[in-house]
Write a structure and sequence with these properties.
136 residues, mainly alpha, elongated, two-stranded antiparallel sheet
């Protein structure tokens, strides 16, 4: 089982949490064990009964090994990481433009015929329309 994370230099790294090693498990059993461990780590309940006692024993053993060694995050820690995966202090906006209010006003200018009046005064379409708003 491997955990992916970003280091201090914003580089994606991987950390081995569990290594099953040599085993007599079948590939299907290993896939099922991995799925059930991932479900537990994400806090998702196991809704299906297993008919394979070997899988149940291995999942419990590996889960205990993982968290008694404190090498992995608990489901609560994982949920906190998922919620706070954006650093809002470092967000920057450039050339942000909102058009909703301007477009609404432009439509009102057209409906009321103000655009025709402004054109009669010599205003060009590029000075009347919503795209004439200065860049901020």
């Amino acid at each position: 089982m491997v955990e992916s994370y970003r280091n201090a230099y914003d580089r994606v790294c991987h950390r081995t949490l569990l290594n099953i090693g040599f085993t007599d498990l079948t590939p299907d059993q290993m896939v099922e064990i991995q799925r059930r461990l991932s479900d537990r780590a994400m806090g998702r309940p196991n809704i299906f009964e297993s008919d394979d006692a070997v899988i149940d024993v291995q999942v419990d053993r590996l889960w205990n090994e993982l968290f008694f060694r404190e090498t992995g995050d608990t489901p609560t820690q994982i949920q906190k990481k998922q919620v706070s995966n954006i650093n809002t202090d470092s967000m920057q906006h450039r050339y942000v433009r909102e058009m909703e209010g301007e477009w609404l006003c432009y439509q009102a200018v057209k409906e009321l015929g103000i655009d025709g009046y402004l054109k009669s005064l010599g205003w060009g379409e590029n000075h009347i329309g919503p795209l004439s708003i200065p860049h901020g």
